[in-house]
Structures are given as structure tokens and as C-alpha cells.
Specification:
The complex is a heterodimer of chains A (about 120) and B (about 110). Helix content of chain A is about 0%, strand content about 55%. Chain A has no helices and 11 strands. With about 110 residues, chain B is mainly β. In chain B, the strands form 2 sheets. In chain B, strands 2, 4, 5, 6, 9, 10 and 11 form a 7-stranded mixed β-sheet that branches. Classes of the chains: A mainly beta (about 120), B mainly beta (about 110).
Chain lengths: ~120, ~110
């Protein structure tokens, strides 16, 4: 039973346009959400996070939106650049366990930025 | 400079052999984690440790063992009981706060001969 779902295995976007990556979750206990960027054979790199008390968080070209009622979050990248081509993982963490529980990851979306 | 190191980058295991993957961090983080990634899949949690001398099973702990004798180190042993060990293994660590970020090492690719 997948608790974090990224339903688009891949996404192709033209350079300079907006990239929108989506993520849905089913576990109501999830309290903290993160996006990671990953290149092949490397560890994931943290991009941006959002806690359930907010509905938007912005950091430079990256903005994450959280819709708790729909159990949906999205990552917007504006403008998209060639270096953004990578696999993006959505991850979630519950509040329980003192905050040290592991993350639950989606399967990732492969973002391809076309020139 | 601070970070998480994993060694080796590539590891080969023979049938019936136990192998140990190293993870070291100098970030002074309390919590450490091991994940496994298979092709086309997300990361799945194997084991985690909140403090020294304590660790918890994750979602796929069978066939793996860990120890946490030092704050900086969290080695993972892939035992012969793990029937499908070929994967990319990632170690992560996190500070003490409730909503702090997990940071990842570069990973170890384990292959079975």
C-alpha cells in the first residue's frame, strides 16, 4: 500500500517554462513533507520542505504548495533550467516518534528539461 | 567539511556471504537511517537509530542488521538471509529537532556475484 504517490514517472518541460511535479499521500499522520532531487548513482539532495501548518513555502526558483484537505502537494520550478533535469522524490514524515521516524518516499518523477 | 560518507562506492557479494556497508557522519546528528533504492522505485527504510546503542526496524529490515556503538557511525550488514540484496543503499542523518531535514550520503551500490 503506497502511502506517498507520484503518479507521473516522467515529465518533459521546455527550458524557461514552469515545471510542476505532483505528489499525493494517504496517511493523515504525515506532518512534514520534503522534496529531494537525485541524479543516478548519487544520494538525494534536499530541495525544499513544508510543514502541515503552512500551505506554501518558497525558496528561490522552488515553491512547494500543500493542500491538506486533498492530501496533495506540488513542487513548482520557475524558470526551469537544464540543470534541473533529474529524478525528484516527494517524501513525508509523521509527527509521531519524536520526529526521528524515517521518511516515506514516492517512486519519483524524472524531470527532463528540453532546450 | 561536514557531511556523510559511505564506503565503499561499489561492493560485490558472493552467495552466502555477509557484507558490511559503512556510514559515517560528522554533522553531530543524533538520528541515522539506512534506505534501499531499487530501479524505478522510491527509497525504502531498512533501519534507523535515534541515539547511540538504540535502533529500530524499518519497513524492510529482514535480512539486514545494524549497530550504533558511536554517534558518528551506523554500519549496515547485509546478511546471507537477504535473498535479493542487489540495490543502491543510502545512509542519512538528521538533527534532533522534530521537523528537521534528513541529509543523505553518496550511496553504495551492492552487486551479487
Amino acid at each position: 500500500d503506497q502511502q506517498v504517490k507520484q503518479n507521473s514517472p516522467s515529465l518533459s518541460v521546455q527550458e524557461g517554462r514552469i515545471s510542476i511535479l505532483n505528489c499525493d499521500y494517504t496517511n493523515s499522520m504525515f506532518d512534514y513533507f520534503l522534496w529531494y532531487k537525485k541524479y543516478p548513482a548519487e544520494g538525494p539532495t534536499f530541495l525544499i520542505s513544508i510543514s502541515s501548518i503552512k500551505d506554501k513555502n518558497e525558496d528561490g526558483r522552488f515553491t512547494v504548495f500543500l493542500n491538506k484537505s486533498a492530501k496533495h502537494l506540488s513542487l513548482h520550478i520557475v524558470p526551469s533550467q537544464p540543470g534541473d533535469s533529474a529524478v525528484y522524490f516527494c517524501a513525508a514524515s509523521p509527527y509521531s516518534g519524536g520526529g526521528a521516524d524515517g521518511l516515506t518516499f514516492g517512486k519519483g518523477t524524472h524531470l527532463i528539461i528540453q532546450p | 567539511d561536514g557531511g556523510i560518507t559511505q564506503s565503499p562506492k561499489y561492493l560485490f557479494r558472493k552467495e552466502g556471504q555477509n557484507v558490511t556497508l559503512s556510514c559515517e557522519q560528522n554533522l553531530n546528528h543524533d538520528a541515522m537511517y539506512w534506505y534501499r533504492q531499487d530501479p524505478g522505485q522510491g527509497l525504502r527504510l531498512i533501519y534507523y537509530s535515534q541515539i547511540v546503542n538504540d535502533f529500530q526496524k524499518g519497513d524492510i529490515a529482514e535480512g539486514y542488521s545494524v549497530s550504533r556503538e558511536k554517534k558518528e557511525s551506523f554500519p549496515l550488514t547485509v546478511t546471507s538471509a537477504q535473498k535479493n540484496p542487489t540495490a543502491f543503499y543510502l545512509c542519512a542523518s538528521k538533527g534532533r529537532g522534530v521537523r528537521e531535514t534528513q541529509y543523505f550520503g553518496p550511496g553504495t551500490r551492492l552487486l551479487v556475484l
